[in-house]
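#struct-help
A.M.: can someone run this one for me? Single chain, 219 residues.
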Amino acid sequence: MEFTLLWAALTAVAAAWLGTRVWRASLPDSPTERIVSSAAAGLLVGRIAEMIGQGINPITNLSDLLIIRGGVSVPAATVAAIGTLWWTSNRDLSVVDSFSAPALVGLAGWHAGCLWRSACLGTVSDLPWALAEPGSTITRHPVELYAAVGLVLASLLVSRIPPKPGLRSAAALGLAALVRLVTEPFRLSVTGGPVFWYVVGLSLALLAGTALVWRHREI
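D.P.: on it. C-alpha cells below:
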C-alpha cells in the first residue's frame, strides 16, 4: 500500500474515532474497535470482489490484495462492513443504528483523505472555490471535499433521527448513496461511475425506511 493511501485510511479512522467521541453516550463498549474492524472487513471483501470482477484470482495473487489503488467494490464493501458490525454486535440492529452517524463521519474522512493523495479534483469549473492541480491553470471542482462535507451533514441529520430499530441505518445508507450520486457527475470518469449501485442503495433505503416508519407507527 502506498503511503498516501495509508494517510487517507488513517484520516478515515481518525474521523470515525472523532464521531465515536461526539456520540459516545449512545454507543456500546469498544466503539472504535468495532467500527474499525468492520471497515477493515469491508475493505478486504470489497477489494476481493473488485479483483474477481477484473478477472484476477485473489488466491493466486495474494499480494494484489494490498494494492487498494487498484479498486474496491463499493457495494461489496458496504454490505460486508454492515454485515460484520451486525454480526459482531450479536445481530442487534439497535447497535448498528448507533454507529450510523460515526460511520458517515469516517466515510467523510476517507473522502477528505484526498488531500494526502492529491486526488480531490474532478471536472473543470470556474467557480470561486475551484482549485487547480500544481503547475496547471485549469481549475476544477474539489469534488471529494464536496462529498466529505455532504457526509458530515448527513451524519448530523442521522443523529437527530429517533432511535428506533433500523431507521438510522436506513437513513445513513440512503444519504451516503445520495451524496455519492449527487457528486458523481463532478468526478472524472470514463464509465460514469457506479451510478446504478448508488440508485439501488438509495431505493432500498427509501423502501426500508418507509416500511420501518409504518411498522413503528403500528407498534
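A.M.: thanks! The chain has a mean pLDDT of 87.
D.P.: also worth noting: The radius of gyration is 18 Å.
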